[in-house]
Design goal:
The protein is an alpha/beta fold. It has 8 helices and 11 strands. The strands form 3 sheets. Strands 5-2-1-6-7-11-10 form a 7-stranded mixed β-sheet, with helices on both faces. Strands 3-4 form a two-stranded antiparallel sheet. α1 packs across α6.
Length: about 190
């Protein structure tokens, strides 16, 4: 069974991170909430999140590590040296990483978006372009770069699409869960 970790930093966009946790746990995927600085994480909108564990080397054991956005949270992810080292090591091992909204700035600083396709919150691409060599910004809801093993998405409204994309990259069929959560209904409107 696949294992996914979602890293929550203070100032994170709560709905983005919790959508991944919710969708994947509904599907039976082992999904862990990892606090960047502690078990209790204050979100960008005053919602305190309680994580399962705090960042450590076990991040190397997950099939996918995902970052929710939120400007403040994304900056903390970007500037954390321990996380940067772990994410670079994961990339060298050929493991998948995912970031949405403002969080691709962290992947860009780590060198994980160099020569890769990605998307992000509108305008954040200007910041990504300053640090990622030859990164290719796309305006799609989600972008999967197979070569770089990177999944990215745009912002709060795309959080469910991002979660489903993570599941699909791991080989899960999302048709049933999309139906159960009325996502197929939403897409048909």
């Amino acid at each position: 069974m696949a294992k996914v970790a979602v890293v929550f930093a203070p100032g994170c966009e709560e709905v983005e991170g919790l959508s991944i946790i919710d969708v994947l746990r509904r599907m039976g995927v082992e999904t862990t909430m990892v606090g960047l600085e502690g078990l209790k994480v204050p979100g960008a909108h005053g919602i305190e999140l309680t994580c399962d564990r705090v960042l450590d080397d076990s991040l190397l054991d997950y099939d996918v590590v995902a970052f929710p956005g939120g400007r403040g949270g994304a900056q903390k992810l970007r500037d954390n040296a321990q996380l940067e080292k772990l994410m670079q090591e994961r990339n060298q091992q050929g493991k998948w990483d995912a970031a949405m909204c403002a969080a691709p700035i962290a992947l860009a600083k780590y060198g994980l978006l160099d020569n890769r396709d990605y998307t992000c919150f509108p305008g954040i691409n200007k910041e990504v372009d300053k640090t990622a060599k030859n990164a290719h910004f796309k305006e799609d809801i989600t972008v999967v770069d197979e070569g770089g093993k990177v999944i990215t998405s745009r912002g709060p409204a795309t959080a469910l699409a991002f979660a489903f994309q993570i599941a699909e990259v791991l080989g899960y069929d999302t048709k049933q869960i999309k139906h159960e959560m009325l996502y197929d209904y939403l897409m048909d409107q």
